[in-house]
Design brief:
The protein has 9 helices and 18 strands. By secondary structure, the protein is an alpha+beta fold. It has 2 domains: 279 residues, outer membrane lipoprotein receptor (LolB), chain A, CATH 2.50.20.10; 115 residues, TATA-Binding Protein, CATH 3.30.310. The radius of gyration is 21 Å and the shape is globular.
């Protein structure tokens, strides 16, 4: 066993590992239903032949190594499993996906629908990247494969099971303008979806600062690569997050494994790691795609036009669409009707819904039966100075929806949400 190499830091790490692209934007209901692309879990399933003996390194230096990593070419296999403590999203996701397709210009290959699969269950991914403009993520099934491919301004998604494809052409003339347009779009193509340990690690390290303890806790071997283990822990109470451990490649600084543990104990919420990884240039054919003959192809503009007429999880909490993934715990302010209470890991977003509307009920006819059943399985009735409401709970993200039209959401405990609602009353 290698010696326990550890060092602490009390702050100053904010933003040091910001990625080239922001993670895909997730609205509150999706976060409550499984934090679809922002907290995806990966099962380790990793080969280990003992902890390597590596030179000691401080936490600050290791974070700097991650930030300075210029590795942009890789290919490999990642195994994914998520335990958010919620009912399976499979049937619900399929319900919304089929409703979106339904012969009205939608597509079963639409990334907005298909990437929600990674919010629950176990999945194997094959990934490849060659710089910021060439990426491929494939979700492997027993007898089928779903692939999302970016090559310059061309984005393709293909589902071999249904023989359906989705195509979008991105405006690359202005990166910032394009990202802003994507945020406002009713049907953006997911960008920077965290399907690798690197993307997950960058999100966590953005929150590192005075409210965070960061140490190096020994070494590991991941997918045949020597790595240091960086441990990030909240100093504050009230968070649902206990710690995040990031295995960092000792040679090139690429995060190889990511594990997120809950403060309440038990198995990991997120456990992310490569089972195979290769840092050589992937074959160019990995990023080319031509729809097979007979494939049903949906263009993004057509899907976008149809999407506005469909109800999905985003309709379940009115006003929640203003909150982005960066709005919680990272200093974000959300939408115009959103304010952030507290800071760091215990930050809570307070959202005022239009017309002071509370959680829709089945009786109102605004909620699909499958969604109402799902929300019912997650909900706890609570009351306090704020009145009464329902806490929608998972092992990671919890949300309190009050009957007077307020939503309090964050990676915090139920008691923390109730306390925030009482203080705001």
């Amino acid at each position: 066993m290698a010696p326990n190499d550890s060092a602490g830091t009390s702050g100053g790490t904010t933003g040091t590992a910001a990625g080239r692209r922001k993670a895909a934007r997730y609205i509150v209901p999706v976060a409550v239903a499984g934090v679809a692309a922002a907290t995806i879990g990966l099962v380790p399933a990793l080969a280990s032949s003992g902890d390597p003996d590596l030179p000691k390194i401080s936490a600050q230096k290791l974070i700097e190594k991650i930030a300075a990593s210029d590795t942009e070419q890789l290919s490999g296999t990642v195994k994914i499993s998520t335990d958010l403590g919620i009912p399976s999203l499979g049937g619900l996701a399929e319900s919304f996906a089929s409703g979106a397709a339904g012969g009205k210009g939608g597509s079963g290959a639409d990334p907005q629908e298909r990437m929600t699969e990674l919010a629950s269950g176990t999945h194997t991914l094959r990934v490849a990247a060659d710089g910021p403009d060439k990426q491929r993520v494939s979700i492997l099934d027993d007898a089928a494969e779903y692939s999302l491919i970016r090559n310059g301004d061309q984005v393709w998604a293909y589902d071999s099971k249904s023989d359906e494809a989705y195509h979008a052409t991105e405006d690359r003339a202005g990166e910032d303008a394009g990202r802003e347009a994507g945020k406002k779009s009713a049907h953006p193509v997911p960008e920077g979806v965290p399907t690798t340990p690197k993307a997950l690690a960058e999100q966590v390290l953005k929150a590192a600062g005075p409210t965070t303890s960061v140490t190096v806790d020994g070494t590991a071997q991941v997918a045949g690569r020597d790595a240091y283990k960086l441990v990030v822990k909240p100093k504050q109470s009230g968070s649902t997050i206990g710690s995040a451990t990031i295995a960092v490649d000792a040679e090139n600084g690429v995060p190889l494994k990511f594990t997120l543990l809950p403060s309440a104990g038990g198995k990991a919420i997120v456990d992310a790691g490569f089972t195979k990884v290769d840092f050589s240039k992937p074959d160019a054919s990995s990023f080319t795609f031509t729809p097979p003959k007979g494939t049903s192809v949906t263009e993004a503009d057509d899907a976008k036009a149809q999407h506005g007429a469909d109800k999905g999880l985003g309709d379940l909490i009115p006003g929640a669409e203003g909150l982005g993934a960066e709005g919680l715990g990272a200093g974000g302010q959300g939408g115009k009707d959103t304010k952030v209470i507290g800071e760091g890991w215990s930050a809570i977003a307070e959202i005022t819904t239009p017309g002071a509307a509370g959680l829709p009920s089945k009786a109102s006819g605004d909620v699909p039966a499958e969604a109402q059943q799902f929300l019912g399985a997650l909900g706890d009735k609570v009351s306090g100075k704020f009145g009464s409401g329902t806490v929608l709970k998972t092992r990671l993200i919890n949300a309190l929806v009050t009957e007077n039209g307020k939503v309090y959401v964050g990676a915090v405990t139920k008691d923390a949400l109730v306390e925030a609602a009482n203080d705001a009353s």
